[in-house]
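Anyone able to model this chain together with pyridoxal-5'-phosphate?
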Amino acid sequence: MSTLSSQQLIDSAKSFGTPLYVYHAEKIGAQYDRLKNAFAGADVRFFYAAKALTNINILRYVRSTGCSIDCSSINEVKLALLAGFEPTQILYTSNNILFEEIMEAKEIGVHINIDSLSNLRKFGNAFAGTYPVGVRLRPNIMAGGNLKISTGHAESKFGVPLEDMEELLQVQKETGLHIRTLHIHTGSEIKDVEVFAKGVEVLLDVVNYFPTVEVIDLGGGFKVPYMPGEEGTDIEKLGTVLKQEFNSFEEKTGRHLQVWFEPGKFLVSEAGTFIVRVSVLKKAGDTWFAGVDSGLNHLIRPMFYGSYHHIENISNPDGPTRIYHVVGNICETDNFAENRPLPEIREGDLLAFQNAGAYCFEMSSYYNSRFRPAEILFENGEPRLIRKRDQLEDLLQNQVIGR
Ligand SMILES: *Cc1c(COP(=O)(O)O)cnc(C)c1O
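re: yes, here you go
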């Protein structure tokens, strides 16, 4: 739930208009602290997965907390530099990119995870052992299933499949490639601590083949609560379990490994709220539609993958409960919520969508030639505009107008 008060959200809508993305810096800081505390005493580094929310002000705030950054494109690497991160604080974990982009990242001097044998071979041929890299593995893990089997994830496009281990070792041997990191990222919204523990097991199994590996990178994917009463990943338990696994590995083998994580959602999801205004109330058959001044062009997660976003009617919190479809204004069926019990909605009411920090503004578009929302950031109790609302000229930007 938002850590900002309804009054702060209402005042923000008044000052900055709607639709509006509102972020809370201190909530991001608190989530980072929670991670640090859960892993206190461990040799661990956290890299914020920037693709969740890349506004440069957010990146700068994350940097100020001491967190490092994980980028999914060369442009994110460049944004991270602009936000003040040092190359040594930047990790570049991409997939299926041109080798030229990896060369560019190498020139900048960031940490690089490579996700294909083809690019690993090119890198090894070009630089041999002079520039340590990470290898993204596909661990063939299915949550809740048998964990080392190759079904389930056998179709995943990410990483080097475990089945190709021999070829990977061959590349290492032939080119002299220096592999420093073994990386996995098994998915998002993984609640089960077991899944992470199994990932570690898989990696600690194969790390024997890689004497130069110093880092185990477990990616992101921590779950945060979306529904009221729902539980996220038990980060504290995860810290305890993983510390145990790595300690006993070290006792058995005498080998010390550093652990990296790339949390996106965990750091910024709950720090964001999306405020929309109800433009039209419509009754069709037995259904009440609350039409709002937004759509899948601003928040696509419900339509894209059926995500639940909790909604509050901050204009009428004590109204009698009714059932609504909350819908957008785009020329597709863009339902934000179906059959959702909400305090009575009136035209003009402000609705606040929770968990709007991660993968929300970031996936917005100009579809239907509508402006993307403005973004504001609360820090020390004060709201600050961090992205202006678009204007008509923005829709024409980069268009070449002929005669
Ligand atoms: C998207 C992504 C993350 C972050 O995932 P969250 O679910 O937001 O924590 C981390 N690492 C990689 C490689 C990713 O692609």
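The mean pLDDT is 94.
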